[in-house]
Amino acid sequence: MPDYDAIVVGAGHNGMAAAAVLARHGLRVLAVEKNDYVGGMAGSREILSGCRNDVGASLLFPLAKDLVDELEFERYGAEFIDLPVMSVNLSAADASPLVFYRNPVRLAAHILRSFGPRAMWGFVGLMRFCQYPASVMDRFTPRSTPRSLERLLAEAPSATARAQLELAFTGSAMDLIDRFLPDKQKHRTLRAMLAFVAIQSTYKGPYTPGSALCLVYTLAVNDGGGLMRRVKGGMGSLSEALARSIEAHGGEVRLKAPVRQIIVTDGVATGVELKNGEFLSARAVLSNLDKPATFFGLVGEQHLTSEYATAVRAVEHRGAYMHVLFKLRALPQFAAPWAHLNRDPRTRFITALVPDPEQVQAGFEACARGEVPEYAPISLQIPTVLDPDLAPPGFHIGTSYGFYFPCAAPREDRGRLRDAMAARVIARIEEHLPGFRDLIVDQAVFSSDHFAAMQGATNGDFTHGLIHPEQMIGGRATIEGSAHATPIAGLYLCGAACHPGPGVTFLPGYGAAYEVIGALAGSTSEQAPPATGERKVA
């Protein structure tokens, strides 16, 4: 009898979701994690003295209703905070700010007043355009099986729908933005914001073919709408709630337990060996790591066909971002012409500093040359305006994301580039919130190299495979007819490397758990059988 029915390698949010579902269904499940906290790149812990910091993801978009009902986050201690002001987007000094209000009537009135009726209808039209391609990608569909782009095109109900899919998958973000918001002056902040949205999970610029897909993916909404929320105590509170759920249902979460290898016997995953030499057997093994980290780091290339190894190497992983944490002695203030926003502290929850699309494209091209961009798109969050317990009394914390960090530069140059990029991030913030630098009590700078070391993400890529057309839907699967099975029987992927992809949706882990439950229920032996469907090599 194996030690466990299932072992989950990696306690990131998807690994926790998979283990929680398996435990709720009565399986003997163990989640093992090399770090001393759960959540991975959606975790929260003390980085700056006395603060609780998100290192990685920090915002929650609506989750699928079935998943929320089953995982019972709130029952196990998670609390959600609604955001009356979801973000403030600032472009040039002569361009109106774009304030995303939670109230849709107030948001529509703001866009109409600040940008005109054509902008309002253009934004509505863009959102409508995204609905169809997002729906066939099953962006928010629990337990869905990905289909290839070729099949989606063949199944399109009309020539118009087919052309819509082709544009979404092969066009640039600016093809869509120019179509719906063409006025470069009147629509300036809207265009800049959407260009920034389109590049955060890619290694592309907004004018680069294929970047439209990331824009569609980001703007997709499910039955919960498109409203962002904050989790009290930080994003890691969700995974911590799932850890409590796992243990309440008889499962186990073991921290500071790094895995040396996934054991493969006669082509079947049979358990794991920890770095302390302990062997643990299981009927199924689920990896929350990306494909190179799983197959080359833990499985071993000797267990793969050469064709499949080549396919794994072809997946593009680049973390072209900078993550900077701040401890602040006071809440920064907007300068003119945005000083009127200071009347409501909640406008400081998220400030996006969005240069024109042409400058964003130039930033990508600088990054590709190994240079720090002149006009780095920046997102600054100050979550303590809504969750003050994240910092000691009288202090605030800031979480900043800057693009594009030249992550492909020679390794010996990256320390210098990291410092230059961090200085550029602070300088960009200073342009809009003067005096910000003087408010900094402490800071911590993370580049993709840090995330590679801390979380085992290949090249620090939080997406586990960038949102590029060839790497999405069917391109994320390894087995025909399965979202999570691999060429090794009994081994499944449960993280963002598999369908439906990145984002704090918990859907990859949730879907993987149900695929494993089905496989184990149909097994007459002690080991999980191969998943239904032909095992392919690429």
- Poorly predicted regions are 524-538
Number of distinct beta strands:
18
- CATH class group of the largest domain: Alpha Beta
Main β-sheet description: 7 strands, mixed
What form results from the Cα inertia axes?
globular
The CATH architecture name of the largest domain reads 3-Layer(bba) Sandwich
Q: What number of structural domains do the residues give?
A: 3
Distance between the first and last residues' Cα: 34 Å
Rg, nearest Å: 23 Å
Strand content: 15-25%
Describe this structure in words.
- Helix content is 35%, strand content 18%.
- It has 538 residues and is of the alpha/beta class.
- It has 3 domains: 199 residues, FAD/NAD(P)-binding domain (3-Layer(bba) Sandwich); 139 residues, no CATH class; 138 residues.
- The strands form 4 sheets. Strands 1, 2, 9, 10, 11, 12 and 18 form a 7-stranded mixed β-sheet that branches.
- The longest helix has 22 residues.
- It is globular.
- The chain starts with a strand and ends in a 17-residue tail after the last helix.
Secondary structure blueprint with pairings:
Elements: E1 4-9, H1 13-24, E2 29-32, E3 42-45, E4 53-56, H2 65-71, E5 80-82, E6 85-90, E7 98-101, H3 104-115, H4 117-136, H5 149-155, H6 159-170, H7 173-180, H8 188-197, H9 212-219, E8 229-231, H10 236-248, E9 252-254, E10 259-265, E11 268-274, E12 279-287, H11 291-299, H12 306-314, E13 321-328, E14 350-353, H13 357-368, E15 378-381, E16 396-403, H14 411-432, H15 436-439, E17 440-447, H16 448-455, E18 491-493, H17 507-521
Parallel strand pairs: 1-2, 1-12, 2-9, 6-14, 12-18
Antiparallel strand pairs: 3-4, 5-8, 6-7, 10-11, 11-12, 13-16, 13-17, 14-15, 15-16
Helix pairs in contact: 1-10, 1-17, 3-4, 4-6, 4-7, 4-9, 5-6, 7-9
